[in-house]
Design goal:
about 375 residues, 14 helices, Aminotransferase, three-stranded antiparallel sheet, single chain, Aspartate_4-decarboxylase, alpha/beta
Length: about 375
Protein backbone atom coordinates (compact mmCIF):
# COMPACT_ATOMS: atom_id res chain seq x y z
CA UNK A 1 0.00 0.00 0.00
CA UNK A 2 2.85 2.42 0.83
CA UNK A 3 4.16 2.38 -2.75
CA UNK A 4 0.69 3.30 -4.01
CA UNK A 5 0.28 6.25 -1.63
CA UNK A 6 1.31 9.87 -2.33
CA UNK A 7 1.94 12.45 0.40
CA UNK A 8 1.52 16.20 0.75
CA UNK A 9 3.30 17.56 3.89
CA UNK A 10 1.25 20.34 5.49
CA UNK A 11 1.56 22.93 8.24
CA UNK A 12 -0.05 20.60 10.78
CA UNK A 13 -3.33 18.72 10.72
CA UNK A 14 -5.20 22.03 10.97
CA UNK A 15 -3.85 23.19 7.62
CA UNK A 16 -4.65 19.78 6.12
CA UNK A 17 -8.31 20.17 7.15
CA UNK A 18 -8.51 23.68 5.69
CA UNK A 19 -6.84 22.62 2.44
CA UNK A 20 -9.10 19.59 2.06
CA UNK A 21 -12.32 21.58 2.33
CA UNK A 22 -10.96 24.35 0.09
CA UNK A 23 -9.79 22.10 -2.74
CA UNK A 24 -12.91 19.93 -2.65
CA UNK A 25 -14.90 23.11 -3.19
CA UNK A 26 -12.60 24.70 -5.78
CA UNK A 27 -12.63 21.52 -7.88
CA UNK A 28 -16.43 21.21 -7.75
CA UNK A 29 -16.28 17.94 -5.82
CA UNK A 30 -18.43 19.49 -3.10
CA UNK A 31 -20.98 22.18 -3.91
CA UNK A 32 -23.39 24.21 -1.75
CA UNK A 33 -26.34 22.03 -0.86
CA UNK A 34 -24.43 18.75 -1.11
CA UNK A 35 -24.92 16.25 1.70
CA UNK A 36 -21.92 15.22 3.77
CA UNK A 37 -21.90 12.71 6.63
CA UNK A 38 -20.06 13.50 9.87
CA UNK A 39 -19.41 11.07 12.73
CA UNK A 40 -20.28 12.90 15.95
CA UNK A 41 -19.14 13.85 18.53
CA UNK A 42 -16.20 15.25 16.56
CA UNK A 43 -13.49 17.93 16.52
CA UNK A 44 -15.46 21.18 16.31
CA UNK A 45 -14.15 22.61 12.97
CA UNK A 46 -15.58 19.62 11.11
CA UNK A 47 -19.01 20.78 12.31
CA UNK A 48 -18.45 24.49 11.67
CA UNK A 49 -16.57 24.72 8.34
CA UNK A 50 -19.40 23.15 6.28
CA UNK A 51 -21.76 25.87 7.52
CA UNK A 52 -19.56 28.77 6.41
CA UNK A 53 -20.40 30.94 3.42
CA UNK A 54 -18.97 29.37 0.29
CA UNK A 55 -19.50 25.83 1.55
CA UNK A 56 -23.09 25.69 2.87
CA UNK A 57 -23.11 21.90 2.98
CA UNK A 58 -25.93 19.83 4.44
CA UNK A 59 -24.69 17.74 7.36
CA UNK A 60 -25.93 14.19 7.96
CA UNK A 61 -25.19 13.08 11.53
CA UNK A 62 -23.70 9.62 12.07
CA UNK A 63 -23.84 9.54 15.86
CA UNK A 64 -21.81 7.45 18.28
CA UNK A 65 -23.57 6.99 21.61
CA UNK A 66 -22.29 6.47 25.13
CA UNK A 67 -24.67 3.54 25.76
CA UNK A 68 -22.78 1.67 23.00
CA UNK A 69 -19.42 2.65 24.55
CA UNK A 70 -19.03 5.31 21.83
CA UNK A 71 -18.75 2.69 19.08
CA UNK A 72 -20.59 3.71 15.94
CA UNK A 73 -23.19 1.14 14.95
CA UNK A 74 -23.15 -0.43 11.47
CA UNK A 75 -26.78 0.69 11.13
CA UNK A 76 -25.61 4.32 11.28
CA UNK A 77 -22.93 3.70 8.65
CA UNK A 78 -25.51 2.11 6.38
CA UNK A 79 -26.69 5.68 5.69
CA UNK A 80 -23.54 6.07 3.58
CA UNK A 81 -25.01 3.74 0.95
CA UNK A 82 -27.26 6.63 -0.11
CA UNK A 83 -25.67 8.12 -3.29
CA UNK A 84 -26.94 11.58 -2.33
CA UNK A 85 -24.26 11.59 0.40
CA UNK A 86 -21.16 12.89 -1.34
CA UNK A 87 -18.56 12.70 1.43
CA UNK A 88 -17.85 11.32 4.90
CA UNK A 89 -15.71 13.25 7.38
CA UNK A 90 -14.42 11.35 10.42
CA UNK A 91 -11.81 11.56 13.14
CA UNK A 92 -10.57 8.05 13.91
CA UNK A 93 -9.97 7.48 16.80
CA UNK A 94 -12.57 10.06 17.67
CA UNK A 95 -12.16 13.39 19.39
CA UNK A 96 -13.52 13.79 22.07
CA UNK A 97 -14.51 10.17 22.76
CA UNK A 98 -11.12 8.56 21.93
CA UNK A 99 -12.72 5.58 20.20
CA UNK A 100 -11.29 3.87 17.12
CA UNK A 101 -13.56 2.30 14.53
CA UNK A 102 -13.82 -1.44 15.22
CA UNK A 103 -13.92 -4.27 12.71
CA UNK A 104 -17.71 -4.11 12.34
CA UNK A 105 -17.61 -0.39 11.59
CA UNK A 106 -14.81 -0.76 9.04
CA UNK A 107 -16.65 -3.62 7.34
CA UNK A 108 -19.80 -1.48 7.19
CA UNK A 109 -17.85 1.34 5.52
CA UNK A 110 -16.36 -1.09 3.02
CA UNK A 111 -19.86 -2.31 2.13
CA UNK A 112 -21.15 1.27 1.90
CA UNK A 113 -18.44 2.14 -0.62
CA UNK A 114 -19.41 -0.89 -2.69
CA UNK A 115 -22.98 0.48 -2.81
CA UNK A 116 -21.92 4.13 -3.16
CA UNK A 117 -18.63 3.97 -5.11
CA UNK A 118 -18.48 7.75 -5.63
CA UNK A 119 -18.31 8.39 -1.86
CA UNK A 120 -15.36 10.55 -0.81
CA UNK A 121 -13.97 9.83 2.68
CA UNK A 122 -11.75 12.20 4.63
CA UNK A 123 -10.34 10.52 7.74
CA UNK A 124 -8.29 12.36 10.36
CA UNK A 125 -6.18 9.62 11.98
CA UNK A 126 -4.05 11.78 14.27
CA UNK A 127 -4.74 9.63 17.37
CA UNK A 128 -4.26 6.28 15.61
CA UNK A 129 -0.87 5.57 17.16
CA UNK A 130 -2.45 5.50 20.64
CA UNK A 131 -4.52 2.42 19.74
CA UNK A 132 -2.82 -0.95 19.56
CA UNK A 133 -3.31 -2.65 16.18
CA UNK A 134 -5.10 0.43 14.84
CA UNK A 135 -6.83 0.03 11.47
CA UNK A 136 -7.53 3.09 9.34
CA UNK A 137 -10.46 3.41 6.94
CA UNK A 138 -7.79 3.67 4.25
CA UNK A 139 -7.07 -0.04 4.83
CA UNK A 140 -10.59 -1.04 3.70
CA UNK A 141 -11.42 1.73 1.19
CA UNK A 142 -8.08 3.02 -0.15
CA UNK A 143 -9.40 4.42 -3.43
CA UNK A 144 -12.10 6.49 -1.73
CA UNK A 145 -10.12 7.80 1.24
CA UNK A 146 -8.07 10.93 1.88
CA UNK A 147 -5.85 10.55 4.94
CA UNK A 148 -5.08 13.43 7.29
CA UNK A 149 -2.36 13.01 9.91
CA UNK A 150 -0.37 15.14 12.32
CA UNK A 151 2.80 14.28 14.24
CA UNK A 152 1.91 16.72 17.02
CA UNK A 153 -0.09 14.40 19.30
CA UNK A 154 2.35 11.49 19.40
CA UNK A 155 5.46 13.63 19.73
CA UNK A 156 4.02 16.50 21.77
CA UNK A 157 5.13 18.91 19.05
CA UNK A 158 2.05 21.02 18.38
CA UNK A 159 4.09 24.19 17.86
CA UNK A 160 6.08 22.64 15.02
CA UNK A 161 2.97 22.38 12.78
CA UNK A 162 3.80 19.05 11.13
CA UNK A 163 1.06 17.21 9.29
CA UNK A 164 0.25 15.59 5.99
CA UNK A 165 -2.42 14.57 3.51
CA UNK A 166 -2.19 11.20 1.76
CA UNK A 167 -4.02 9.80 -1.26
CA UNK A 168 -3.85 6.57 -3.21
CA UNK A 169 -2.45 6.99 -6.73
CA UNK A 170 -5.78 5.68 -8.01
CA UNK A 171 -8.57 7.53 -6.25
CA UNK A 172 -12.18 8.64 -6.57
CA UNK A 173 -11.22 12.31 -6.35
CA UNK A 174 -9.29 12.17 -9.64
CA UNK A 175 -12.07 10.09 -11.19
CA UNK A 176 -14.75 12.62 -10.27
CA UNK A 177 -12.68 15.52 -11.63
CA UNK A 178 -12.28 13.67 -14.95
CA UNK A 179 -16.08 13.31 -15.11
CA UNK A 180 -16.88 17.01 -14.58
CA UNK A 181 -18.82 18.80 -17.31
CA UNK A 182 -16.98 20.83 -19.94
CA UNK A 183 -17.75 24.20 -18.33
CA UNK A 184 -16.21 23.18 -14.99
CA UNK A 185 -13.24 21.57 -16.75
CA UNK A 186 -12.61 24.80 -18.71
CA UNK A 187 -12.75 26.82 -15.50
CA UNK A 188 -10.25 24.50 -13.77
CA UNK A 189 -8.01 24.49 -16.84
CA UNK A 190 -7.71 28.27 -16.57
CA UNK A 191 -7.14 28.03 -12.82
CA UNK A 192 -4.18 25.69 -13.00
CA UNK A 193 -2.66 26.59 -16.42
CA UNK A 194 -0.42 29.11 -14.65
CA UNK A 195 1.57 26.36 -12.96
CA UNK A 196 1.44 23.18 -15.08
CA UNK A 197 1.69 22.41 -18.81
CA UNK A 198 -1.34 20.11 -18.93
CA UNK A 199 -3.87 21.20 -16.25
CA UNK A 200 -6.45 18.63 -17.34
CA UNK A 201 -4.14 15.82 -16.20
CA UNK A 202 -3.23 17.44 -12.90
CA UNK A 203 -3.91 15.04 -10.03
CA UNK A 204 -6.07 16.09 -7.10
CA UNK A 205 -3.21 15.82 -4.61
CA UNK A 206 -1.20 18.26 -6.76
CA UNK A 207 -4.22 20.55 -6.91
CA UNK A 208 -4.32 20.46 -3.10
CA UNK A 209 -0.70 21.66 -3.05
CA UNK A 210 -1.36 24.40 -5.62
CA UNK A 211 -4.54 25.59 -3.90
CA UNK A 212 -2.70 25.78 -0.57
CA UNK A 213 -0.37 28.34 -2.16
CA UNK A 214 -3.13 30.34 -3.99
CA UNK A 215 -2.08 28.40 -7.14
CA UNK A 216 0.44 30.95 -8.46
CA UNK A 217 2.79 30.36 -5.50
CA UNK A 218 2.77 26.61 -6.26
CA UNK A 219 6.57 26.66 -6.56
CA UNK A 220 7.04 27.79 -2.94
CA UNK A 221 7.17 25.56 0.12
CA UNK A 222 4.60 25.71 2.89
CA UNK A 223 7.00 24.13 5.39
CA UNK A 224 10.31 25.68 6.39
CA UNK A 225 13.48 23.64 5.95
CA UNK A 226 13.54 23.00 9.69
CA UNK A 227 9.94 21.74 9.63
CA UNK A 228 10.67 19.48 6.67
CA UNK A 229 13.66 17.93 8.43
CA UNK A 230 11.77 17.44 11.69
CA UNK A 231 8.86 15.76 9.88
CA UNK A 232 11.30 13.44 8.11
CA UNK A 233 13.00 12.53 11.40
CA UNK A 234 9.66 11.81 13.10
CA UNK A 235 8.57 9.64 10.18
CA UNK A 236 11.89 7.76 10.09
CA UNK A 237 11.49 6.61 13.70
CA UNK A 238 8.70 4.26 12.56
CA UNK A 239 11.05 2.61 10.07
CA UNK A 240 13.52 1.78 12.83
CA UNK A 241 10.91 -0.53 14.32
CA UNK A 242 9.73 -2.20 11.13
CA UNK A 243 8.92 -5.90 10.63
CA UNK A 244 6.66 -6.26 13.66
CA UNK A 245 9.07 -5.14 16.37
CA UNK A 246 7.87 -2.82 19.13
CA UNK A 247 8.32 0.95 18.96
CA UNK A 248 9.46 1.79 22.49
CA UNK A 249 8.47 5.45 22.21
CA UNK A 250 4.92 4.62 21.10
CA UNK A 251 4.62 2.03 23.88
CA UNK A 252 5.69 4.58 26.50
CA UNK A 253 3.36 7.23 25.06
CA UNK A 254 0.41 4.85 25.26
CA UNK A 255 1.32 3.87 28.80
CA UNK A 256 1.60 7.54 29.83
CA UNK A 257 -1.86 8.59 28.59
CA UNK A 258 -3.34 5.35 29.93
CA UNK A 259 -1.94 6.07 33.41
CA UNK A 260 -3.35 9.60 33.35
CA UNK A 261 -6.71 8.30 32.10
CA UNK A 262 -6.87 5.76 34.94
CA UNK A 263 -5.98 8.33 37.60
CA UNK A 264 -8.65 10.74 36.35
CA UNK A 265 -11.42 8.19 36.16
CA UNK A 266 -10.63 6.50 39.48
CA UNK A 267 -10.52 9.84 41.28
CA UNK A 268 -14.07 10.61 40.12
CA UNK A 269 -15.46 7.10 40.17
CA UNK A 270 -16.12 7.39 36.43
CA UNK A 271 -16.41 4.30 34.23
CA UNK A 272 -13.21 3.35 32.36
CA UNK A 273 -13.08 2.01 28.81
CA UNK A 274 -10.59 -0.87 28.74
CA UNK A 275 -11.41 -2.01 25.20
CA UNK A 276 -8.63 -2.34 22.59
CA UNK A 277 -10.24 0.42 20.49
CA UNK A 278 -9.89 3.05 23.24
CA UNK A 279 -7.08 5.57 22.66
CA UNK A 280 -7.52 7.06 26.17
CA UNK A 281 -6.19 10.34 24.83
CA UNK A 282 -9.37 12.17 25.87
CA UNK A 283 -12.10 11.54 28.40
CA UNK A 284 -15.69 12.66 28.01
CA UNK A 285 -17.02 12.92 31.57
CA UNK A 286 -20.76 12.94 32.21
CA UNK A 287 -21.20 15.26 35.20
CA UNK A 288 -24.91 14.43 35.52
CA UNK A 289 -24.15 10.72 35.83
CA UNK A 290 -21.52 11.30 38.50
CA UNK A 291 -23.90 13.62 40.37
CA UNK A 292 -26.63 10.97 40.42
CA UNK A 293 -24.20 8.26 41.49
CA UNK A 294 -22.98 10.33 44.46
CA UNK A 295 -26.07 12.24 45.54
CA UNK A 296 -29.13 10.68 43.92
CA UNK A 297 -31.56 11.29 41.08
CA UNK A 298 -33.17 14.40 42.58
CA UNK A 299 -29.81 16.20 42.61
CA UNK A 300 -29.14 15.16 39.03
CA UNK A 301 -32.49 16.63 37.96
CA UNK A 302 -31.68 19.82 39.90
CA UNK A 303 -28.39 20.13 38.00
CA UNK A 304 -30.06 19.49 34.65
CA UNK A 305 -32.59 22.26 35.34
CA UNK A 306 -30.20 24.80 36.90
CA UNK A 307 -26.74 23.81 35.72
CA UNK A 308 -25.04 26.28 33.36
CA UNK A 309 -22.16 24.24 31.99
CA UNK A 310 -20.05 27.29 31.20
CA UNK A 311 -20.51 28.56 34.77
CA UNK A 312 -19.35 25.19 36.13
CA UNK A 313 -16.23 25.32 33.95
CA UNK A 314 -15.48 28.93 34.88
CA UNK A 315 -15.85 28.21 38.61
CA UNK A 316 -13.52 25.24 38.25
CA UNK A 317 -10.94 27.38 36.46
CA UNK A 318 -11.17 30.32 38.88
CA UNK A 319 -11.09 28.26 42.03
CA UNK A 320 -8.48 25.66 41.15
CA UNK A 321 -6.90 26.64 37.82
CA UNK A 322 -8.40 23.57 36.15
CA UNK A 323 -9.38 24.32 32.53
CA UNK A 324 -11.68 21.75 30.92
CA UNK A 325 -13.72 21.96 27.72
CA UNK A 326 -17.46 21.87 27.17
CA UNK A 327 -18.35 18.70 25.27
CA UNK A 328 -21.38 20.32 23.60
CA UNK A 329 -19.11 22.16 21.18
CA UNK A 330 -17.99 18.78 19.85
CA UNK A 331 -21.56 17.66 19.25
CA UNK A 332 -22.00 15.73 22.52
CA UNK A 333 -24.86 16.25 24.96
CA UNK A 334 -25.17 18.80 27.76
CA UNK A 335 -23.42 17.86 30.99
CA UNK A 336 -20.37 16.27 29.34
CA UNK A 337 -16.88 17.70 29.85
CA UNK A 338 -13.82 16.87 27.76
CA UNK A 339 -10.50 16.25 29.47
CA UNK A 340 -7.25 15.83 27.53
CA UNK A 341 -4.76 13.31 28.90
CA UNK A 342 -1.93 15.03 26.98
CA UNK A 343 -1.34 18.34 28.71
CA UNK A 344 -0.62 18.07 32.42
CA UNK A 345 1.77 16.21 34.75
CA UNK A 346 0.40 12.74 35.48
CA UNK A 347 -0.43 13.31 39.16
CA UNK A 348 -2.55 16.35 38.26
CA UNK A 349 -5.23 14.12 36.76
CA UNK A 350 -6.20 12.70 40.12
CA UNK A 351 -6.29 16.30 41.37
CA UNK A 352 -8.65 17.28 38.53
CA UNK A 353 -11.03 14.53 39.55
CA UNK A 354 -10.87 15.60 43.18
CA UNK A 355 -11.55 19.24 42.33
CA UNK A 356 -14.50 18.37 40.07
CA UNK A 357 -16.02 16.40 42.95
CA UNK A 358 -15.39 19.26 45.37
CA UNK A 359 -17.24 21.66 43.10
CA UNK A 360 -20.08 19.16 42.68
CA UNK A 361 -20.28 18.95 46.48
CA UNK A 362 -20.67 22.72 46.66
CA UNK A 363 -23.53 22.54 44.14
CA UNK A 364 -25.06 19.79 46.27
CA UNK A 365 -24.79 21.92 49.40
CA UNK A 366 -26.69 24.68 47.59
CA UNK A 367 -29.28 22.11 46.51
CA UNK A 368 -29.76 20.90 50.08
CA UNK A 369 -30.05 24.42 51.49
CA UNK A 370 -32.82 25.17 49.00
CA UNK A 371 -34.73 22.04 49.98
CA UNK A 372 -34.69 22.34 53.75
Amino acid sequence: MANKTELFPTEGGTAAIVYAFHSLSENHLLKPGDKIAINTPIFTPYLQIPELNGYELVEVDLRSREKYNWEIKPSELKKLEDPSIKALFVVNPTNPTSKAFNHKALTAIKHAVEKNPELMIITDDVYGTFVQDFKTIYSVAPHNTMLVYSFSKLYGATGWRLGLIALNKENVFDKKIAELDSANKDELHKRYEHVVIDPDKMKFIDRLVADSRAVVLYHTSGLSTQQQMMEVLFALTHLVYADGSTDAYIDKSRALVSDRYEKLHKSMGAKEDESRTSAKYYSLIDIYRIAEKKYGKAFREYLEDNFEQVDFLLKLARKNGVVLMDGVGFGSKAGELRVSEANLPTDDYALIGKQVLELLKKYHNDFESQNK
